[in-house]
Design brief:
single chain, alpha/beta, Rossmann fold, 7-stranded mixed β-sheet, 5-stranded parallel β-sheet, globular
């Protein structure tokens, strides 16, 4: 008899006999594997966190007690245990469950999250709110080890230590981030794991070291240093946390016992839990990076199911930067814990001494790149568009203000699909184009990407190159890379009735829309603008001479984006014009397949043509 169907809420879970919990965890894993194989998603981290999440809901009185996730990649078991089993098959599909915790979806999702390093701050805020309201609920932050490479986590930790309110932080250490563990923190956690005698010896050694307190400052300092060497958990204790662990996080009985032991401890507590990423599914255990975020796959074999062999924009970037770096030893590549996702794994293999994975620390990545550029090197920061939001201040003050030649390669620009609003690159054109000194470009296809990357590296300016997730347009890739004229678009087709000015991956659909409009007798021109900043005003002036009707198309928010830039130019020209802007609305676009979202938002060739046809009558 299956246990999972009997768990409609965590209250049901708490009525289950404890000896049945291992079976429940196995059923959770199987449900997650089967559903993810059909829908894609974040598999490895969710499998590793099954026992932690089950134990949390078993021990704590949720939703009165608050569980705050960091990043949200590990929350699938949480969704299954909190009243969403019947809808779990819809996860990451349009109109279905989100792949991340989402406040509007469930009262058990206490805080929406998609980016890393936020849980500690949010949980601390909830704990202080509890204190002010004189409530008695618990607050728990479930934090993956990679999240602790983000500076925001430490800002929260030092504040939590100062405020000293009751909260529990569970450090889920799966010995990986999204890719391989990097940085000093990773070494520290590894050191903790190898010193299994630490917890047994700590009390005796602490009592011994206390004797130094009466022997003067120098001896006391020496004692403190000795303790930090013996007990690496001291880093957390020095910040005001009671440290416990490491504990086997994939042992449900051990997790329940330790949570029962620490739940009533006063003040901030950090419980260090060790799990295996991909636990219980051999393909994910053997290849945890591949199964961190994966598309459809065969649940029996783990083999990926691919529907398109066309080269992706990410692969085009990867090939281009490796080619350029072979000819120019000044080129360096930087990623924030995403070497595979951004396509820099090949660069890492080819040029390890010029590759830097800084952990989940986008702010540091940007200013680190600024330092490289200040000394004459050519840094390329490869980052997802939605994560670029985190280093906006560094772009403005550390890079653009000093006019330093840093290239940002913004992957996942525009609609990303099933990951939804936390990951859509919907705002980059809007928040970037107002910054002085920068050049902002978007390739029409995978071939133009390589040329624009070379253009950026040769420009000697802050240069931002944004491109989408997924397959390109199956165009031929030029063997030799060349510079494009900065701030210049190209006519792809001239038309006397109207002109579509398109940017980035909207160029090819715009051409197809022009063909459909031609069948209706509407002679439509198409411009590949290539650059949002500087804007090619000369080609726009030519377009207005052909026809005062201009259509702009972008996969960015209409507020302040590419179309807004053209509207600003046209308004200042004292010439009549009509303008239709197509792009993303002033709202957060939900998750779903990119093609479905584009159709809904009039960004496919067919819906674009229909919208333009109606407008032009």
């Amino acid at each position: 008899m299956k246990v999972l169907p009997t768990v409609k809420t965590p209250a049901d879970l708490r009525n289950i006999k404890r000896e049945l919990l291992p079976q429940l965890c196995e059923e959770l894993r199987q449900e997650i594997i089967q559903t993810t194989s059909k829908n894609g998603g974040h598999l490895g981290s969710s499998l590793g966190a099954v026992e932690i999440i089950t134990a949390l809901h078993y021990v704590f009185d949720t939703p009165k007690d608050k569980i705050v996730f960091d990043t949200g990649h590990q929350s699938y078991a949480h969704k299954l245990l909190t009243g969403r089993q019947s809808k779990f098959h819809t996860i990451r599909t349009k109109g279905g469950l989100s792949g991340f915790p989402k406040r509007s979806e469930s009262k058990y999702d206490t805080f929406g999250v998609g980016h890393a390093s936020t849980a500690l701050s949010a949980a601390l805020g909830m704990a202080i709110a509890r204190d002010q309201k004189k409530s008695d609920n618990k607050v728990i932050a479930l934090v993956a080890d990679g999240a602790l490479t983000g500076g925001m986590a430490y800002e929260a930790m030092q504040n939590a230590g100062l405020l000293a309110t009751d909260m529990l932080v569970i450090l889920n250490d799966n010995q990986m981030f999204i890719s391989q563990r990097v940085g000093q923190l990773g070494q520290l956690l590894t050191k903790l794991l190898t010193k299994k005698y630490v917890q047994l010896a700590e009390e005796k050694a602490t009592n011994f070291l206390k004797r130094f307190d009466d022997l003067g400052n120098n001896a006391a300092k020496l004692a403190k240093k000795a303790r930090s060497i013996l007990f690496p958990g001291t880093i957390f204790e020095e910040m005001g946390f009671r440290y416990f662990g490491p504990v086997n996080g994939n042992d449900i009985d051990a997790m329940i016992d330790v949570l029962e032991s620490v739940k009533e401890i006063k003040g901030p507590v950090l419980l260090h839990v060790v799990t295996k990423k991909g636990k219980g599914y051999p393909p994910a255990e053997q290849k945890p990076t591949k199964f961190h975020g994966i598309g459809m796959f065969d649940a029996d074999t783990g083999d990926t199911i691919s529907k398109n062999n066309t080269i992706t924009f990410t692969k085009a970037f990867s090939d281009a930067i490796v080619k350029l770096a072979k000819a120019d030893k000044k080129i360096n590549a930087i990623t924030a814990a995403m070497p595979e996702g951004t396509g820099l794994a090949a660069f890492r293999e080819e040029f390890p001494e010029r590759f830097f994975d800084v952990g989940i620390a986008e702010e540091h990545a940007a200013t680190f790149a600024a330092g490289l550029a200040a000394e004459g090197l050519k840094p390329v920061v490869a980052v997802y568009s939605s994560f670029m939001q985190r280093c906006y201040d560094q772009l403005v003050h550390d890079i653009a203000l000093q006019d330093l030649p840093v290239v940002f390669a913004l992957d996942r620009a525009g609609l990303v699909g099933e990951d939804g609003p936390t990951h859509h690159g919907a705002f980059d054109l809007s928040f970037l184009r107002s910054t002085p000194n920068i050049i902002l470009a978007a390739p029409a296809d995978e071939n133009e990407l390589g040329h624009l990357l070379k253009t950026g590296l040769d420009s000697g300016k802050p240069f931002i190159l944004r491109y989408p997730r997924g397959a390109g347009f199956n165009v031929t890739i030029d063997e030799e890379l060349k510079d494009f004229p900065i701030g210049k678009g190209v006519w792809l087709k001239e038309g006397k009735d109207l002109t579509i000015a398109a940017i980035g991956n909207m160029v090819h659909p715009a051409l197809q829309a022009a063909e459909l409009l031609a069948k209706q007798g509407i002679d439509t021109g198409v411009i590949n603008m290539r650059f949002v900043k500087p804007l090619d005003t000369q080609i726009l002036a030519e377009a207005v001479k052909h026809s005062p009707r201009i259509v702009t198309v972008e996969d960015n928010a209409l507020c302040g984006g590419f179309g807004s830039a053209i509207a600003e130019y046209l308004t200042a020209q004292d010439k009549p014009f009509q303008l239709l802007r197509l792009g993303l609305p002033d709202e957060f676009v939900e998750h779903g397949k990119v093609t479905l979202l584009q159709e809904q938002l009039n960004l496919t060739a067919q819906t674009m043509a229909k919208k333009i046809s109606t407008w032009s009558k």
